[in-house]
């Protein structure tokens, strides 16, 4: 039987997920300046400025094709930017990745479903930067992987082949990989897609705990109803940044209408037809 999702709790919340020692006070967790990305003739992002503070969860909202995944992929270095620059806790992306500071939970993973690796193996990949060239897991790595799996409610599936998980379980395994990494800045591209309501609530709880411990989160979602509780700030994207600031001020009917090309009537800050 799978244990209750989210039953694991960080025993002693601490600033353990905050910036590493030596990071100057006030350094943003993520700073994106003037970012522009093209795919041949398609302009996916144009002059995007964005900042996520330390200990802050920021929502990224936009219609299909508005550039959210492109933004994530560019920030983590999987997509080349035409213009602009990105820093993570004041470091270059390469350095932040080498230090394991930057975690990424992609919308679609590129793991081969037939590849004979277990769920635990995948989560242990989050520890590679600590293992050195041998990539041999030590007791601390195994412990971190097991803790992360418990945290997302997958402890009982640790030895299952990754290709045999359901879509929602796979999403949670990818989150566990980022948790095991101990990333201080976490990028999540639609992490709630495919999750049932219980799993979504538990994943939201894990993110809140991360932020409470000093971590920083940028999360894209189409679930506008969950944003005000999860993210103190939000960014509305449509190739460019249309609005950014406190979530309640960003998710106005007018802004949402601009971002989604809708008639503003019927929209509220909590989503279509919801209460304001
Ligand atoms: N590899 C690619 N080659 C060409 N165009 C691409 C590529 N990837 C994305 N695009 C285009 O870039 C734009 C932004 O796409 P992106 O995937 O970043 O949007 P998104 O906001 O993440 O969408 P969704 O909500 O559907 O996930 C779209 O017009 C898309 O068609």
From TrEMBL:
Keywords: ATP-binding, Nucleotide-binding, Transport. Residues 13-22 have a biased composition (Pro residues). Pfam families: ABC_tran. Residues 1-29 are annotated as: Disordered. One of its GO terms (molecular function) is ATP hydrolysis activity. The keyword Cell membrane does not apply. Residues 30-264 form the ABC transporter domain. InterPro entries: AAA+_ATPase, ABC_transporter-like_ATP-bd, ABC_transporter-like_CS, Metal_Ion_Import_ABC, P-loop_NTPase. PANTHER family: IRON TRANSPORT SYSTEM ATP-BINDING PROTEIN HI_0361-RELATED, METAL TRANSPORT SYSTEM ATP-BINDING PROTEIN TM_0124-RELATED. Belongs to the ABC transporter superfamily. This is ABC transporter ATP-binding protein.
């Amino acid at each position: 039987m799978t244990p209750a999702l989210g039953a694991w709790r960080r025993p002693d919340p601490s600033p353990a997920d905050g910036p590493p020692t030596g990071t100057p006070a006030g350094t943003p967790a993520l700073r994106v300046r003037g970012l522009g990305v093209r795919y041949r003739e398609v302009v996916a992002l144009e002059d995007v400025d964005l900042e996520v503070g330390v200990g802050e969860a920021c929502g990224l909202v936009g219609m299909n094709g508005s550039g959210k995944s492109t933004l994530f992929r560019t920030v983590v270095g999987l997509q080349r930017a035409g213009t602009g620059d990105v820093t993570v806790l004041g470091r270059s992306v390469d350095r932040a990745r080498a230090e394991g500071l930057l975690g990424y939970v992609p919308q679609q993973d590129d793991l081969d479903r037939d590849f004979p690796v277990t769920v635990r193996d995948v989560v242990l990949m989050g520890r590679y930067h600590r293992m050195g060239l041998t990539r041999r897991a030590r007791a601390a790595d195994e412990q971190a992987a097991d803790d992360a799996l418990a945290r997302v409610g997958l402890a009982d599936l640790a030895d299952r082949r990754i290709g045999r998980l359901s879509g929602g379980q796979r999403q949670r395994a990818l989150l566990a990989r980022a948790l095991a990494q101990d990333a201080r800045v976490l990028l999540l591209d639609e992490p709630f897609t495919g999750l049932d309501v219980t799993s979504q609530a538990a994943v939201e709880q894990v993110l809140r705990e991360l932020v409470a411990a000093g971590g920083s989160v940028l999360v894209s979602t189409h679930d506008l109803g969950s944003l005000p509780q999860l993210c103190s700030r939000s960014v509305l994207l449509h190739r460019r940044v249309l609005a950014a600031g406190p979530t309640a001020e960003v998710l106005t009917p007018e802004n949402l209408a601009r971002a989604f090309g809708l008639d503003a009537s019927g929209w509220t800050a909590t989503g279509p037809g919801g209460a304001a």
